[in-house]
């Protein structure tokens, strides 16, 4: 194993811990353990610090053009390869809960790739991606620009439920 592999493995672990501890904090808060929730939030933030530092030392952060290209490639991989294979497995095992989660994520990833493609075209033309407001569906992760649909086209929740991203 070399240092680059170590960095990649450490980044994966730190990123997963960050999200896991964030979710653990929400569960603790829901159960009324506010101080335990705070501890999990702090640990989640610490894991994020580690992950961000690993991205830098691993050379994974490039120019905006390179980052958009990498982001688009990742989203397309998830849309075209990863989630379709996961969906087949969940169907075969009768895991409707996982199937719905995978389908929602796959469709949202396709939307993300399209938005990255639009942003990439703008940046390559020497301008910023022109948006006033970015909205995020809190259920499926769909992103809509400047306005929301009446209902999320992926999961169907009301557009009024979308969160504004600053």
Description:
- This protein has 166 residues and is mostly helical.
- 67% of the residues lie in helices and 5% in strands.
- It has helices spanning 3-30, 34-57, 64-93, 96-124; strands at 134-136, 143-145, 163-165.
- It has a three-stranded antiparallel sheet with strand order 2-1-3.
- Helix 1 runs antiparallel to helix 2 (34-57).
- The longest helix is centred in the middle third of the chain and has 30 residues, at 64-93.
- The radius of gyration is 18 Å and the shape is globular.
- The termini are far apart.
- This is Rubrerythrin-2.
- Its EC number is 1.11.1.1.
- GO terms for molecular function: metal ion binding; NADH peroxidase activity.
- Keywords: Oxidoreductase, Peroxidase.
- Residues 1-127 form the Ferritin-like diiron domain.
